[in-house]
Design goal:
Length: about 500
């Protein structure tokens, strides 16, 4: 490169440089002077156009460098003159004449002659104060986030848009056992947390679907069965949030203890229902056998007594006949109670005939309510536990309708559709309003839910003011978690 080009700056370049916000300079090594500095350089040093090019020297600039950064700047300048040095950059704090401290980013290149000697240095200085303030704010935000995250009682992870784990908090490691080294990517997490291939496939498909549906917002929480590093299994609710840059923030809720408690409550509930059914059956048998026989004997004895009295005891005979009628009505009442407790027809003939009989008797006791009954697809009897559960739900459903619905018509539909049996009870009454409210969580509805849950089924109740109520229960034919005693053998 010819020597004159090292120190000459064209007017076109000057005009272009003066339009830039960054400070641009051309420093001549031999004369130790700045051949050119643009207007932004003058504003940075608080000199006007006519002054700064004449009075600014490396020494005056060094005086504007923060004392803690001067040695680093001095060393970078000295290194630039060493053989082979081509370009450099440095950040430092600059003391502006107005008293403010600004951060600068200085980048430069060294121009050399044919022999390799440094002839000039050209550079550009950018004010990065706002960038540094932003970085400082981000660092403070990250520090606060980490402090809060480490104090969180919930496991937390942060995953970038490429599926790489950026952060897991202390609770995450405590609960799951995995560190960032164990699960560098989402793929590794899925492999470890869901070792069963089929369950992993299902979990991955559900996760991808949820992420697509919840882009740029909070994703609906979902529960998964997670295998921890030590091999234990936990039930976990995932609460992911997609942040603007597609980073994924996930909070995890460990449901294991709650699930275990629910399981224990459900077991106790099944035991309670089973015990109740056993007691009902025994009481029904006692009423039928003991009370029934006693009332029959009493009835026969009173008839015999009435027949043995002489004709002149007509008044006493009439009184005995009245008492006999009371005994007959008492017998009918005991038989009805016995059937309510545990109908023999259910055990002997099965669910469909027992329900047909019960609904006919129910309409007799509730003359203002007409009930239609349909049974579809039944060719054989169900498991005893299913039969008693469905029978009890029909009982409870019709009792609620009679007591609260003010309905004129109800319908009971029982459908066997393999692998499930479906019960629907609906009415044209006033409705229950919000069935999720506390006022509609009575013993009857809770009992229904517990019976259905104990058999691995589901129940749905839809209702609205003036729109009637629909109860729909769906139970698997191969009922799960059936207690042997529940069959009431």
């Amino acid at each position: 490169m010819p020597e004159e080009l090292d120190i000459r700056v064209s007017e076109d370049f000057k005009r272009l440089a003066d339009q830039l916000q960054d400070a641009i300079y051309h420093y001549d090594v031999a004369s130790r002077t700045f051949i050119f500095m643009n207007k932004s350089s003058g504003r940075l040093l608080d000199y006007d156009d006519s002054e700064f090019a004449r009075v600014v020297t490396p020494k005056t600039i060094l005086l504007h460098i923060h004392p803690e950064d001067r040695e680093a700047v001095r060393k970078a300048s000295a290194d630039s003159l060493k053989p082979g040095f081509e370009r450099g950059e440095i950040e430092y704090r600059f003391l502006h004449p107005d008293g403010s401290v600004r951060w600068m980013h200085d980048r430069w290149v060294v121009l050399r002659d044919a022999s390799g000697a440094a002839k000039a240095i050209e550079g550009i200085v950018r004010d990065i104060t706002r960038l540094k303030e932003t970085e400082k704010a981000l660092l403070e935000y990250e520090r606060r986030f980490r402090r809060i995250a480490e104090m969180s009682p919930f496991p937390i992870s942060v995953i970038d848009d490429q599926g790489r784990y950026l952060y897991v908090n202390r609770k995450f490691i405590e609960i799951f056992g995995y560190t960032l080294e164990d699960i560098p990517t989402g793929g590794e997490w899925f492999r470890r947390a869901f070792p069963d291939a089929e369950y992993r496939r299902q979990a991955r498909a559900a996760w991808i679907s949820d992420m697509k549906a919840g882009a740029q917002c909070e994703v609906d929480p979902r529960e998964f069965r997670v295998t921890c590093k030590d091999g234990t299994v936990r039930y976990v609710r995932f609460r992911p949030v997609v942040i603007e840059d597609d980073t994924l923030f996930i909070m995890y809720e460990d449901l294991t203890e709650r699930k275990q408690a629910e399981k224990e409550i459900r077991r106790l509930s099944r035991e309670l229902i089973s015990t109740q059914e056993v007691a009902c059956k025994r009481l029904a048998q006692d009423l039928h056998d003991e009370c029934g026989q006693a009332l029959t004997a009493l009835h026969l004895g009173m008839e015999a007594l009435r027949g043995s009295l002489p004709r002149e005891f007509e008044k006493q005979k009439k009184r005995i006949q009245e008492l006999t009628g009371i005994v007959e009505r008492l017998g009918d009442t005991i038989r009805n109670i016995s059937h309510e407790l545990r109908p023999e027809m259910l055990d002997d003939l099965g669910l469909v005939p027992a329900l047909a009989w019960y609904i006919k008797e129910f309409m007799r006791r509730a003359p203002g309510l007409d009930v239609d009954f349909k049974a579809l697809g039944f060719k054989k009897r169900l498991d005893p536990a299913l039969e008693i559960a469905l029978y009890r739900m029909v009982q409870e459903g019709l009792t609620n309708i009679a007591r609260h619905a003010g309905a004129r018509h109800a319908e009971v539909i029982l459908t066997l559709s393999h692998p499930n049996v479906i019960l629907t009870v609906k009415d044209d009454g006033v409705g229950l309003g919000d069935v999720s409210s506390a006022s509609h969580r009575g013993i009857g509805l809770l009992g229904m839910r517990e019976r259905v849950a104990s058999l691995g089924g589901s129940i749905e109740i839809r209702s609205g003011r003036g729109k009637g109520t629909v109860l729909r229960a769906e139970l698997p034919l191969e009922a799960r978690h059936i207690c042997a005693r529940y069959a009431c053998s």
